[in-house]
Design a protein that fits this description.
321 residues; alpha/beta; Rossmann fold; 6-stranded mixed β-sheet; 11 helices; 12 strands; elongated; binds beta-D-galactofuranose; SBP_2_dom
Length: 321
């Protein structure tokens, strides 16, 4: 009896020591995060990449990073490679809303949690991702629409709007359009006379605005650009066409990057709706919570505001991107 008890105690002690060692090792093992970025299409995206990389370093998380050059197939390839490497967590900013189920099913089967950052996906199964950290683009569009309503409240119209859309099929493009339309649909003086994608790039915005200026000229009252890069391109095109952006043409833009706010301070953008790219710290906190087995909300919305032209100059010195 005594021998058996001693053997049992020895076995219990051994199990406890192994468990503690494993736990200790688990605590020491660095978290590996695979991040599939959209690309480097805009100042916003560059700032977002800097935020993710610096936050991973500060958090002691090993970051595997890929740039998809705005191509969905490249993002899918990157996610597959992270699955093959058995990373602890996968995070990505989906370049477009649709077409993600197959690869996210593979991540789920591999028991690798997925975090969406910045942009949303169109998926029936909400369990394909743990959480989405990013802006409410629909509300951003509503903010742009409400600003236009206030700006033109004493004007009987017509107010003709040309729209520079972001990447076709992307959540920010879909929702910044939908948010605007939600606000102006009941006010017949507002009319979107043309809408075309500039793919969130400066060159794209300039090219589309050159065509709009040629076709519509002085009929244009408002340029509604889905991001600052396209707005800055459009400003170049308008000035080359002899138009005065911010004066005879009202310019509404999104992101509130330094470039956009500098243009606003120079009187060329009338309002810049903030969309923060500084998602890195929130992402790393969330990754640590997921690895530790803690619950996280299915949606984490970033807090944002609106910068009319008259405040741009005073906020510029404090802007981080
Ligand atoms: C918005 C982000 C958009 C920015 C653009 O969260 O996805 O993509 O508005 C960027 O500047 O290219």
């Amino acid at each position: 009896m005594r021998r058996t008890l001693r053997q049992a105690l020895q076995a219990l002690l051994a199990v406890t020591l192994v468990g503690a060692a494993a736990a200790g090792h688990a605590e020491d093992k660095k978290i590996v995060l695979g991040f599939a970025q959209v690309g480097a299409e805009s100042a916003w995206r560059t700032a977002n990449t800097v935020s993710v990389k610096s936050a991973a370093k500060d958090a002691g998380i090993t970051l595997k990073f890929s740039d998809a050059q705005q191509k969905q197939e490249n993002q899918i390839k990157a996610i597959r490679s992270y699955i093959a490497q058995k990373v602890d967590v996968i995070a990505f900013s989906p370049v477009v809303e649709s077409g993600w189920e197959p690869v996210l099913e593979e991540a789920k089967r591999a028991h690798i949690p997925v975090v969406l950052t910045d942009r949303m996906i169109d998926a029936k199964d909400p369990s394909l991702y743990v959480t989405m950290i990013g802006s409410d683009f629909l509300e951003e569009g509503r903010r742009g629409g409400r600003w236009l309503e206030e700006h033109y409240k004493d004007d009987k119209g017509p107010i003709n709007i040309v729209e520079l859309q972001g990447t076709v099929g992307s959540a920010p493009a879909n929702d910044r359009h939908a948010g605007l339309m939600e606000i102006i649909k009941n006010d017949p003086k507002f009319k979107v006379i043309a809408s075309q994608s500039g793919d969130f790039t400066l060159a794209g915005g300039k090219q589309v605005m050159e065509a709009f200026a040629k076709t519509y000229g002085k009929q244009i009252n408002v340029v509604y650009a889905h991001n600052d890069d396209m707005a800055l391109g459009a400003i170049q095109a308008m000035e080359e066409a002899g138009m005065k952006p911010g004066k005879d043409v009202t310019v509404v833009s999104f992101d509130a990057t330094k470039g956009g706010l500098q243009a606003a301070a120079a009187g060329k953008i009338n309002v810049d709706v903030e969309c923060s790219p500084l998602l890195g710290p929130q992402l790393m906190d969330t990754v640590k919570k997921i690895v530790a087995g803690e619950q996280v909300p299915h949606r984490i919305v970033t807090n944002e505001t609106v910068f009319p032209m008259n405040v741009a100059a005073q906020v510029l010195p404090t802007r981080k991107y």
